[in-house]
Design goal:
325 residues; alpha+beta; Structural Genomics Hypothetical 15.5 Kd Protein In mrcA-pckA Intergenic Region, Chain A; Pseudouridine synthase; 20% helix
C-alpha cells in the first residue's frame, strides 16, 4: 500500500443489514461518490472481515468489519519517462513526433504512464508549454492510441497559442492514409455531417442530426483491392473526435480493424475465407496513419510541411491484399 493511500474502517450496524455494499459505503463514506465506490469495489479495494469483496451488489451483514482503501490521487504533473521518440523536427518553439501505434497521447484513467506526454517531459525537460495544463503540457491536438503518425507539441506558450489558433481556423494541413472496407463510390468526394456523442453509447461518437459540431472530411481513393477494400487518403477540413473513423463508417466503408465503428464489417468475399480475408478481418487496429502535417511556424512565419511513410503493419496488409489468392 502507498503511504499516502487512506484507509477507512467501518462496522455494519444491525439497522443497516441487507443493504448493497456500494450503497452502504456511499452512506458511510459520503466524501466518495457511489460510482467511485463501485469502481473501488470492483478494483479490489474493499475487504469484508479481511477478505476482498469485488461485488458491489453484495448484501452487508450486521457486525461485519469493512475496510475501504482509497488510493492516493496520481501526481498532478505526469512523471518524465525515458521513452524513445521518433523526432521528425524540433526547434526552440515546437517538436514534431511520428507517434507509434499503441502510444496514448496524454495521461488519463487507465493510462497513467508511457504516454507521449511522459516521453516529452523527459525529452524536452521543462521546455513544454504550460497552456495545456498539468496533465497535458504542450499538447495542441491528439491522435487516438491506435492511430499512428505525425503530431506536433508546443514548447512555448507562443507556439501553443499560434498552433491552437491555426487548428481553430482550419488552416493546418492534415492528411491520413487509411484502408477501408469495400470500394467507396464515388471514388472521391466529401463527407459532411455533425459529429457528436452517440445517443445509444456515450463512449462512441456518431453523425448526429442535432447537437455535435460541424465536420468535413475529404477523401480520395488511391488504390482498390478488388471489392474487398481500398486505400484512401482522407484530409481533415475540421478536427472532431474520431472524425475520419465516424465519417467513413457513415458512408458504409468503415476502416479495416476498427473495433468501435467497424464492428461486423466485412469485405465482399463471395463466401470465401482466404488468407487475405483473414488478414483483413484480424488486423489488430484501425488502419489509419496520419502521414501529412503542415502549419505555419509560430515564430518565423515559415510554412512547414512534414510527411511520414506508411508504417510496416499497414504496408504488410497492402502487400497481402495485392498478392493473388
Amino acid at each position: 500500500m502507498n503511504e499516502t493511500d487512506s484507509l477507512h474502517t467501518m462496522t455494519v450496524a444491525p439497522s443497516q443489514a441487507g443493504a448493497r455494499l456500494d450503497r452502504w459505503l456511499a452512506d458511510s463514506a459520503p466524501d466518495q461518490s457511489r460510482s467511485r465506490l463501485k469502481t473501488l469495489i470492483i478494483e479490489g479495494q474493499v475487504t469484508v472481515d479481511g477478505a476482498v469483496v469485488a461485488d458491489p451488489a453484495r448484501k452487508v451483514r450486521a457486525g461485519e468489519n469493512i475496510v475501504l482503501r482509497v488510493p492516493a490521487p496520481p501526481p498532478a504533473r505526469p512523471d518524465a519517462e525515458d521513452i524513445p521518440l521518433a523526432v521528425v523536427y524540433e526547434d526552440d518553439q515546437l517538436i514534431v513526433i511520428d507517434k507509434p501505434v499503441g502510444m496514448v497521447v496524454h495521461p488519463a484513467p487507465g493510462n497513467r504512464s508511457a504516454t507521449l506526454v511522459n516521453a516529452l517531459l523527459h525529452h524536452c525537460g521543462g521546455s513544454l508549454s504550460g497552456i495545456g495544463g498539468e496533465r497535458r503540457p504542450g499538447i495542441v491536438h491528439r491522435l487516438d492510441k491506435d492511430t499512428s503518425g505525425l503530431i506536433v507539441a508546443a514548447k512555448t506558450d507562443l507556439a501553443h497559442r499560434s498552433l491552437a489558433a491555426q487548428f481553430a481556423q482550419h488552416s493546418i494541413d492534415r492528411a491520413y492514409k487509411a484502408i477501408c472496407w469495400g470500394l467507396p463510390m464515388p471514388r472521391s468526394g466529401s463527407i459532411s455531417g455533425r459529429v457528436g456523442r452517440s445517443s445509444s453509447d456515450r463512449k462512441k461518437m456518431a453523425v448526429v442530426s442535432r447537437g455535435g459540431r460541424e465536420a468535413l472530411t475529404r477523401y480520395r481513393t488511391e488504390r482498390v483491392f478488388g471489392e474487398r477494400a481500398a486505400l484512401v487518403e482522407c484530409r481533415l477540413a475540421t478536427g472532431r473526435t474520431h472524425q475520419i473513423r465516424v465519417h467513413m463508417a457513415s458512408i458504409g466503408h468503415p476502416l479495416v480493424g476498427d473495433r468501435t465503428y467497424g464492428r461486423g464489417a466485412k469485405g465482399k468475399t463471395g463466401g470465401r475465407s482466404t488468407a487475405v480475408d483473414r488478414a483483413l478481418a484480424d488486423f489488430p487496429r484501425q488502419a489509419l496513419h496520419a502521414y501529412l502535417l503542415g502549419f505555419t511556424h509560430p515564430k518565423s512565419g515559415e510554412r512547414l510541411l512534414f510527411e511520414s511513410v506508411i508504417p510496416h503493419d499497414i504496408n504488410e496488409l497492402i502487400d497481402q491484399l495485392t498478392t493473388p489468392d
